[in-house]
């Protein structure tokens, strides 16, 4: 793509605009068949345009636009066609010809971001603070049922809470939700409740190790059994799998990760007793083989029902008391349709329940556009960047790249994002944060909501996170720098 003159640039952008129209139209036609009578959500059209744009390499256009003082296309996530049309109208004027497209007015140009903000308010409730990003706290019974601690947490800036249905029981969930709402109402505000379905937790079961060596090391072999232990002389390291049927879906060479990637290996053989995993990487001291630790199969598209019988039981309570449901292990649009059907059975005449899709596998990431279109066609919808499992699935070195793309895709779809997993973890659990955690927390300002996990210093964590988010938001909105005066630099400059 040669761009040497204004007219070359005008023709290149005009050609790009036509190609995006054609590609997006084809994609939208397929999505219409997928959602049926529900119709496409408003953000789907912009998402289709964004995917059509990003499937092309437009890097030669970026410096050419900048040389003429025009906006690049790098901040067009929420408004693809308005951005292109604004550039085309300006280029047409610069070359002295009649505009090939109408220049979008301010309302049209800003509509995408405003739609995203409305979606965030529907899901997470009105802002309780001038900051843009809400703060979500994972609630535990000890805090929820302690009036003073709950007051401290809300006073520090908590906007919404998460109840993990993998723990406790329905009567406890009801008590927690009731306590939060009563405390928030006493403060003259709201506090939305997300209830997180556990999903099919793939974990180690009944581990066996040599009596003198409980830790896996690089070079060891681990037998993941179908349920019954095998010859321990041949396989001194063994563990069952909570969903043994998954093991039949693995091929020789498939990667396997244990306990959030603390031990990594590959399938080297398939046996009648189970699959043999050669351990390739652990920490210097090895990794102790324990029960109830997560197992991931990066790169293998696992076929597993996303709603367990326990999830369906929990969903009865969720549909009764929650504002949002967290969907674990969602991987396809059909998984979303399954949950929507189950919600419909329980809330046929009620307001639609918000859905937060937890994106934690490579397959879910790849299917994110279709997941978003299916969910947002009938429900208030957001995504959670579940960086724990996701990092294991895509590889730690790719995590920052993948979470960045997820932020872009969600903004293009006008879908709110929850930035989750170990945000200010050391501060919340130990009372003292780390430099890296504060930098990571500032990245959360690009999302509509940031989630903290539970810990004894949760109120301190909420206050610190609120401060970090307010500072970060003054510098940038999404990817767009605000260019405010450099107050921190000026304050740090020595007097001369």
Describe the fold and architecture.
Helix 1 packs antiparallel against helix 4 and helix 2 (42-54) crosses helix 14 (399-412). The chain is an alpha/beta fold and 496 residues long. The strands form 4 sheets. The chain has an 8-stranded parallel β-barrel with strand order 1-2-3-13-14-15-16-17, surrounded by 7 helices. It has a 7-stranded mixed β-sheet with strand order 4-7-6-10-9-8-12, with helices on one face. A two-stranded antiparallel sheet has the order 5-11. A hairpin with a 3-residue loop joins strand 9 (263-270) and strand 10. The longest helix is centred in the N-terminal third of the chain and has 30 residues, at 6-35. The chain folds into 3 domains: 6-104, no CATH class; 117-200 and 305-481, TIM Barrel (Alpha-Beta Barrel); 204-296, M1 Pyruvate Kinase, Domain 3 (Beta Barrel), CATH 2.40.33.10. It has 18 helices and 19 strands. It has helices spanning 6-35, 42-54, 61-67, 80-95, 106-124, 141-144, 147-156, 170-186, 309-321, 333-346, 362-366, 368-376, 387-394, 399-412, 425-430, 435-443, 458-475, 487-492, and strands at residues 134-138, 160-164, 192-196, 204-208, 215-216, 221-225, 237-241, 255-258, 263-270, 274-282, 287-288, 295-296, 324-327, 354-359, 381-386, 417-420, 449-452, 476-477, 480-481. The chain is globular, with a radius of gyration of 25 Å.
């Amino acid at each position: 793509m040669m761009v040497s003159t204004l007219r070359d640039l005008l023709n290149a952008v005009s050609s790009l605009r036509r190609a995006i129209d054609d590609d997006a139209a084809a994609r939208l036609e397929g999505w219409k068949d997928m959602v049926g009578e529900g119709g496409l959500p408003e953000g789907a059209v912009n998402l289709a345009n964004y995917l059509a744009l990003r499937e092309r390499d437009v890097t030669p256009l970026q410096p050419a636009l900048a040389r003429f003082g025009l906006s690049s296309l790098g901040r067009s996530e929420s408004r693809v066609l308005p951005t292109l049309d604004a550039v085309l109208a300006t280029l047409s004027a610069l070359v002295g010809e009649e505009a090939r497209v109408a220049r979008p007015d301010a309302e049209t140009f800003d509509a995408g971001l405003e739609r995203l903000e409305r979606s965030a308010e529907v899901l997470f409730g009105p802002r309780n603070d001038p900051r843009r990003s809400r703060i979500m706290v994972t609630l535990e019974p000890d805090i929820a049922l302690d009036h003073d601690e709950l007051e401290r947490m809300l006073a520090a800036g908590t906007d919404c809470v998460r109840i993990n249905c993998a723990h406790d029981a329905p009567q406890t969930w009801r008590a927690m939700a009731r306590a939060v709402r009563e405390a928030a109402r006493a403060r003259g505000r709201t506090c939305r409740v997300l209830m997180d379905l556990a999903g099919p937790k793939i974990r180690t079961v009944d581990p066996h190790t040599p009596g003198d060596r409980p830790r896996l090391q690089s070079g060891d072999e681990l037998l993941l059994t179908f349920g019954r232990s095998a010859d321990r002389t041949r396989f001194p390291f063994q563990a069952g799998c909570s969903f043994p049927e998954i093991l039949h879906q693995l091929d020789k060479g498939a990667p396997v990760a244990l306990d959030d990637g603390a031990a990594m290996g590959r399938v080297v053989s398939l046996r009648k007793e189970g699959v043999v995993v050669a351990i390739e990487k652990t920490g210097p001291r090895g990794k102790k083989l324990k029960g109830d630790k997560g197992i991931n199969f990066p790169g293998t598209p696992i076929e597993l029902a996303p709603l367990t019988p326990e999830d369906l039981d929990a969903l009865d309570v969720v549909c009764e008391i929650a504002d949002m449901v967290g969907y674990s292990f969602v991987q396809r649009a059909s998984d979303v349709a399954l949950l929507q059907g189950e919600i419909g059975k329980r809330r046929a005449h009620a307001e639609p329940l918000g859905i937060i899709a937890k994106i934690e596998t490579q397959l879910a990431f790849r299917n994110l556009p279709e997941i978003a279109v299916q969910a947002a066609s009938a429900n208030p919808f957001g995504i959670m960047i579940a960086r724990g499992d996701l990092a294991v699935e895509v590889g730690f070195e790719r995590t920052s790249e993948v979470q960045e793309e997820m932020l872009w895709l969600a903004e293009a779809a006008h879908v709110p994002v929850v930035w989750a997993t170990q945000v200010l973890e050391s501060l919340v659990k130990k009372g003292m944060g780390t430099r890296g955690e504060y930098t990571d927390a500032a990245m959360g300002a690009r999302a509509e909501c940031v989630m903290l996990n539970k810990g004894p210093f949760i109120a301190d964590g909420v206050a610190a996170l609120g401060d970090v988010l307010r500072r970060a938001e003054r510098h940038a909105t999404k990817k767009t720098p605000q260019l405010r005066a450099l107050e921190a630099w000026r304050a740090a400059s020595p007097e001369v």
